[in-house]
């Protein structure tokens, strides 16, 4: 297999806002991408342009028709990016809100009785929704345990607890705490082997920025992302729903068009900004490959992103130059293990004799932005079994550089000394 080409980092970083400097605190290195990635400059321009337009969709005038065409184009761009030739795309309040809505629709609209299955690795956006609505409808909730050592849940884990009466299964694509991706296609196949007609929902919020989504290969019914984590902005989420999920009784206005998931007037600018995101992946794919097909360029961008982020996380864990990696620090725990091929641009670690808060504060004082994860309702499912009250999350993205990783390792070396 040929090596992946190097990313054109200068050209990439030029397309994003506030790459090297926080507008409030000044120069900094940004390793908090799992909390919200950098925003494309084109997204900022598009947001401002559409915020100024007073017209709504569905009117008999040129502006309204133009807005409708922009939304239609954005949905086509979404279908290309997600590789979803069927089903429907729509936007909502946030990724979490859309997780709840799709899960609620599947649990309430499926046959009475039965059960709902999910895993202990999941973010509460899907796990809380599944547990809440299974309780409301009297469906048993089945929890598949994840592997504490790898930070992953497997197809075999689901298969061991599956029953034919499962009405809904939820899957986390990538964990925002461990950074480890789960094999959605294999888990989906294991679920359908036992319960072919079940609805399958995937939380893709953490996975999306890595550019490797392939809904056509998953055999699922719902997929949700949060665009602010994939170079767009806050204020909306994106959902994909299969035709069979849309055929359930969905919440909509009485006598409105069939299959209309959206309630109220949507922001055309939200749709348009995701076209900016897809255009960015298309551009990047053209920089790292000779592909002439748009989907092939998106796939090439995803492969190059993965290779670059893998190189950065390996340097972070193993060290670079004369700087020791995180794995060499005394008393270190790296969530998901030191050498995990399923890691996606994120390393969460703890030191036995140093509180996570102290580490985050020290790095922040050095102009390096990271994040503390505590054993709370967001991360306790992962940290508590490991005996950790808190850990430090370093979340990278493809626009980060090896020099930035070196700066973090130098700060950690100073702290350890």
From TrEMBL:
GO terms for molecular function: transaminase activity. InterPro entries: Aminotrans_V_dom, PyrdxlP-dep_Trfase, PyrdxlP-dep_Trfase_major, PyrdxlP-dep_Trfase_small. Keywords: Aminotransferase, Pyridoxal phosphate, Transferase. SUPFAM superfamilies: PLP-dependent transferases. The keyword Transferase applies. Pfam families: Aminotran_5. Residues 29-408 form the Aminotransferase class V domain. This is Aminotransferase class V-fold PLP-dependent enzyme. It comes from Sulfitobacter aestuarii.
């Amino acid at each position: 297999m040929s090596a992946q080409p190097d990313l054109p980092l200068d050209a990439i970083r030029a397309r994003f806002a506030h790459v090297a400097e926080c507008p409030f605190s000044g120069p900094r290195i940004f390793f908090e991408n799992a909390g919200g990635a950098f925003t494309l400059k084109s997204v900022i321009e598009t947001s401002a342009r559409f915020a100024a337009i007073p017209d709504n969709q569905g009117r008999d005038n040129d502006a309204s028709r133009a807005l409708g065409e922009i939304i239609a184009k954005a949905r086509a761009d979404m279908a290309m990016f997600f590789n979803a030739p069927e089903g429907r795309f729509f936007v909502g309040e946030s990724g979490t809100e859309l997780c709840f809505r799709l899960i609620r629709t599947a649990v309430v609209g499926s046959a009475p009785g039965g059960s709902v299955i999910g895993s202990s690795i999941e973010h509460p956006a899907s796990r809380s929704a599944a547990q809440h609505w299974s309780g409301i409808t009297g469906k048993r909730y089945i929890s598949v345990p994840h592997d504490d050592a790898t930070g992953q849940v497997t197809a075999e884990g689901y298969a061991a607890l599956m029953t034919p009466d499962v009405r809904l299964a939820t899957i986390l694509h990538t964990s925002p705490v461990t950074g480890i991706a789960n094999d959605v296609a294999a888990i989906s196949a294991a679920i359908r082997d036992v319960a072919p007609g079940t609805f399958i929902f995937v939380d893709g919020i953490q996975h999306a920025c890595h550019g490797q989504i392939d809904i056509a290969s998953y055999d699922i019914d719902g997929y949700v992302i949060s665009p602010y984590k994939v170079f767009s902005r806050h204020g909306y989420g994106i959902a994909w729903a299969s035709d069979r999920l849309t055929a359930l009784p969905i919440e909509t206005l009485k006598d409105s068009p069939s299959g209309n998931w959206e309630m109220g007037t949507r922001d055309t600018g939200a749709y348009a900004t995701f076209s900016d995101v897809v255009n960015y992946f298309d551009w990047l794919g053209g920089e790292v490959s000779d592909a002439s097909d748009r989907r092939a360029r998106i796939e090439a961008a995803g492969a190059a992103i993965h290779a670059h982020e893998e190189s950065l996380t390996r340097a972070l864990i193993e060290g670079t130059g004369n700087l020791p990696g995180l794995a060499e620090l005394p008393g270190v725990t790296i969530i998901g293990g030191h050498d995990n091929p399923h890691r996606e641009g994120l390393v969460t670690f703890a030191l036995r004799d140093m509180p996570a808060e102290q580490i985050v504060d020290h790095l922040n004082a050095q102009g390096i932005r990271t994040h503390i994860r505590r054993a709370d309702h967001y991360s306790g499912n992962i940290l508590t079994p490991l005996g950790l009250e808190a850990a430090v999350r370093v979340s990278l993205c493809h626009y980060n550089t090896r020099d930035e990783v070196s700066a973090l390792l130098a700060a950690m070396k100073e702290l350890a000394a």
